[in-house]
Specification:
The chain is an all-alpha fold. The chain folds into two domains: 75 residues, no CATH class; 35 residues, no CATH class. Helix content is 83%, strand content 0%. The chain starts with a helix and ends in a 6-residue tail after the last helix.
């Protein structure tokens, strides 16, 4: 029974990740190409050879993905570190870990707190990804 419960939970999580990260990205990207083609190019003689959906899709993809990679690289090198710092201020478990580490270093932590802290991380280390 425990295996089935964990298997179902993990499958549910994997399904949500696959759906939101990969499948919906593909569908939204294709939808964006179709809408952009419909409103910008269909029936327009201004763009000439781009009036084919396939040609528009190929050219759009060639321009879009390098731009997305450059913007993503900029985001991970600049903004992501700021987001991680802000996340750290909002995470109560992280605050407790840092407080206990400081208390241990300054000698303010009780032996009971140190043992509880050690047990908490030992339990995390023992868990296998299949157990979730």
């Amino acid at each position: 029974m425990v295996f089935e419960k964990n298997f179902l939970r993990k499958s549910w999580y994997d399904g949500r990740i696959g759906h939101s990260t990969y499948l919906m990205f593909l569908l939204v990207f294709l939808n964006f190409i179709l809408i952009a083609f419909n409103y910008l190019l269909e029936g327009s003689s201004f763009f000439g050879n781009l009036s084919s959906l396939w040609m528009f899709g190929i050219i759009f993809t060639i321009i879009y993905f390098p731009a997305a990679v450059l913007i993503g690289r900029w985001h991970t090198q600049t903004q992501l570190s700021t987001e991680k710092v802000l996340w750290g201020f909002e995470e109560p478990i992280m605050a407790k870990m840092v407080r206990i580490l400081l208390d241990v270093q300054t000698g303010k932590a009780s032996q009971e707190e140190i043992q509880e802290f050690d047990k908490f991380f030992t339990d995390i280390e023992k868990k296998d990804i299949g157990e979730f």
